[in-house]
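Give me the 3D structure for Glycosyltransferase family 2 protein.
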Amino acid sequence: MLISICIPAYKRTAYLKRLLHSIAIQTFKDLEVIVSDDSPDNSVQIVCEEYQGKFKLLYYKNEVALGTPANWNFGISKASGEWIKLMHDDDWFANENALAMFAEHTNKSKLIFSAYTNHYENGTIQEVYLRHFWSKKITKEPAILIAENVIGPPSVTLIHSSIKEQYDERLPWRVDIEFYYRILKQTGSYYYINQPLVNVGISESQVTQSCLYKPEVELPEGYILLQKQGIQPLLRHILVYDAWWRLLRNMNITTQKQLEQYGNKNWPAVIINMVNDLDKVPRTLLNIGAFSKILMTISYLKNKKLVEF
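Predicted structure for Glycosyltransferase family 2 protein (309 residues):
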């Protein structure tokens, strides 16, 4: 078996049908599909039964919902393919040759990802490509993925099964970025397919939409990232420093007390200094993008010694 498509599912049967149909019409057939179901009912199971016989489909019901991303890890643990393709249930393949295109490049790297197309609930469609600006930076400095997830959601990736990294179940918001960071640190390479092979559904019900700029989510996760991966690799690059600056600014975090309010009493000095720098500037000025960027650069240069090796 070359490719295992792992689908963590939760109730959204109309989306799941769309995904399974897109798999059924693929010209590439050396695959298996693993559905790990967190739903409280049997609606997902009924849909899976409709597709039995069209391809190899293994269905697993979680009697107790695992949640995101534990359900991702569970599905992957059941895969037997040489390559793992995690697909969210509201995403789907762009055309019948998409999986064949992924398979065609499996000799290039252990991490493969493609361009993709965002499909918003209001009907807006947006194609997303890897810009040349980022192409070398993400292997040289994988930490800049914290600044911008230029790889995309897990559905656009294909990962070799020899990579044993798991998604960190403490990070429902930045889980994919942190996962990519570890893989790039391990492999030092990737292969990018400059063609949209996956359609990505964007809705307000997604975990990522519900976590954006929520300090009760963003700050604990940010703290875990800093503790897990280290302050220097995550903050020495100005693009990552800028991402933290914008995050704190947009959440209106301007005191150390606010940082500690979310359960962490030992924030690194560079983050505390950044918050203090934000506190010195009127909010009206911080809301001016160009001015905020200048202030961020000054703050970075002042605190750079705290993140240098």
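DSSP finds 15 helices and nine strands in the chain. Let me know if you want a second pass.
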